[in-house]
Amino acid sequence: MRSVVYSKPGDSSVLTLEERPLPEPGPGEVRVRVVVSGVNPTDWKARTGGTYGDDLPFPEITPDQDGSGVVDAVGERVDGLAPGDRVWLFMSASGRPTGTAQEYTVVPSERAVRLPDGVGHDVGASLGVPAMTAHRALTTHEHGPARLSPGALDGRTVLVAGGAGAVGHAAIQLARWAGATVVTTISSDEKAALATAAGAHHTVNYRDDDAAEQIRHIAPDGVDIVVEVSIPQNAGLVAEVLANHGVVSIYANNGGDEATLPIRPNMSINARYQFLLLYTIGDEALSAAAEDITAALRDGALPVGEEAGLPLTRFPLEQTAAAHDAVEGDAVGKVLIDVQPE
């Protein structure tokens, strides 16, 4: 099978397309025929040494956590999945050398989730890191909910920082599906259009001098949940608009590794700052996210494509390096790799 691999950290030039033996699933594992691979910032950061450092955990690694395809074989003690099942994949390369930038990949069965009928592989490959991170960000409020479903966020206001990004896009869609009023901050009219297409009720340019006043006009009592991509940049704005007992769910370090928080404003509203990382949130949270995301898929709540606010940029498998470069270069929307036809 064709497989993109690297055996040392570095820029995208370390990625090469090779022929590798077809892997066999072990107990509790499934082999998936990958149709589409999804690329995230975590993938290029891991490749450059941001995750592993100079010592890779495996002699050779195939990148990319997310993907979508068809179950090809199952190992012993696998229940609920069978050859021919269409699935979306998450954390394929977490603690393993077998990511989705190859024609077949082997993953633990719990990391392969059935795709509902009528949901395409482009959607499946766009879930994983973005949608599961968004789910976690929306379920860390002190007073709940711990799960998402229609009506779960009724009466709540959610502020999504960077609504044109992949996580922001999924957060808008999931929050809207769950009944929240969704506000998003953006930096341009073009990105505002994407956030609106995703389902945001309101967009505010965070560069406006009166951005906080605009958000407070929409949510006079403040926003309940902030899905935050750049707390170093946004700490001041967030403190001005957060509701009493509001939570700031921080999923990225865009803007730097350190932030300064205003103490008194946050103290006066009992603010909660919740850091999160998908790879360490635990099996219970991952399982809940997978179940709720699949329910949202059945309701048609997570479409992709420019008309849905998430433009797709596509590359063939042999151009995986260019796909990684596009994500590292902050390509707007979602970068996908077409691995093979279904």
Task: Describe the fold and architecture.
The chain has 342 residues and is of the alpha/beta class. It folds into two domains: 2-126 and 310-338, Alpha-Beta Complex (Quinone Oxidoreductase, Chain A, domain 1), CATH 3.90.180.10; 131-279, Rossmann fold. The chain has helices at residues 41-47, 121-125, 128-137, 166-177, 189-198, 211-218, 231-241, 263-268, 283-298, 320-328; strands spanning 2-5, 16-19, 29-39, 66-74, 86-89, 104-108, 112-114, 157-161, 181-186, 202-205, 223-228, 242-250, 272-275, 312-316, 334-338. Strands 3, 4, 5, 6, 7, 14 and 15 form a seven-stranded mixed beta sheet that branches. The chain has a six-stranded parallel beta sheet with strand order 10-9-8-11-12-13, with helices on both faces. Helix 1 crosses helix 10 (320-328).
What's the short version?
With 342 residues, this protein is of the alpha/beta class. It contains 10 helices and 15 strands.
Q: Give the full name of the CATH homologous superfamily of the largest domain.
A: Medium-chain alcohol dehydrogenases, catalytic domain
* Count of runs of 4 or more consecutive helical residues: 10
Cα radius of gyration in angstroms: 20 Å
Largest sheet: 7 strands, mixed
Q: Which consecutive residue ranges, at least 5 long each, have pLDDT under 50?
A: none
